[in-house]
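Dear Dr. V.,

Thank you for agreeing to look over these. As mentioned in my earlier message, I'm a first-year student in the group and I'm still getting used to reading structure tokens, so any feedback on how I've presented them would be very welcome. I ran two proteins. I've put each sequence directly above its structure. The first is here:
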Amino acid sequence: MSKVPEANQTWADLLKGNQSALKQIYMDYHKSLFQYGIRILLDEEATKDCLHNLFVKIWTNHKKLSQTNNIKYYLMSALRNEIINYKTRESRYDHNQTELEVFKLDFSVETEYIRKEEINEQTHQLTEAMDRLTPRQKEIIYLRYFEELDYPQIAEMMDVTVKGAYKLSARALEALKEIMQVDKVVLIGMLISAKQNYW
């Protein structure tokens, strides 16, 4: 719990132009940001580029940034916007769409940032079941159960109402229950277990 005020102070230091604070924020959050970004872009280099651009913009605009009590949420939301901008520039995104075209929830993805020696059978089953969900259903499960964002934060990131975020999450869990033929309690347990394996 003591990290929260410390994180707030680090952000405050960044706003004052402290480069060490920027470096600390990068070290604390770049892995989580990369894991989120690559599941949207499915491209390691593009994800790194978006991350790089994000932190360049943060430093360039640090005097204009507002205070935040949740750095992780702030950065994930900013990265999502950066990815949408990237996809727009690459002409792979329809301006009229409000959802990203793909979201990959594969717990066995291996990159230089994400290495898992082995994934158990239960996690493989969960991954296969996840692949049958829509991109938005996969994204909300990731944000809620793996990044542990709250529903108002998710709603803002995904451009839906808080009620809509609850509904989307409930539908995603219901779809997983039907695919896997398990109770909701068991399913939540599997998600928690997958998170532990995944991290």
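The second protein is here, in the same arrangement:
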Amino acid sequence: MDRIDFLRKLAVGGSFLLAGPTFMASCSKDGDTTDPDPGNGNDITIDLTDSSFDDLDTVGGYVYYGSMIIFRTGNDSYRALSKKCTHQGCDVTYDHSSGDVPCPCHGSVYSTSGVVTNGPAMSNLTSYSVVKSGNTLTIK
């Protein structure tokens, strides 16, 4: 084996060694066990006294929790939807003044029940049932 052939094989082998972990990591599943999702049959409970949920203290406030957006629509009225726009996966927001759930990326708009009211999204957001008892929200 001459010097040039050796350097070529070294470069090719080194490329595989550097790229291998990237390919292996891309096959793993992200967040399968850590992302709270009532869609898997487990109810989610939220303690409204936890400072992480301070934005839910006022009507119109919203928070992201796992794969959901939770927002306060009235005095004791809350909604929970999937936070990912069904068009291209951007996180939706909540606009209390219009009563809409807009996507800031491409202009899709959903109602507070998750129904598409303006495209380009074609599919509704998943909607979850929310029950308030004292300072606890239970999302099913």
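From my reading of the second output: The first strand starts at residue 44 and ends at 47. Confidence is low (pLDDT under 50) at residues 21-34. Does that match how you would interpret it?

Kind regards,
E.
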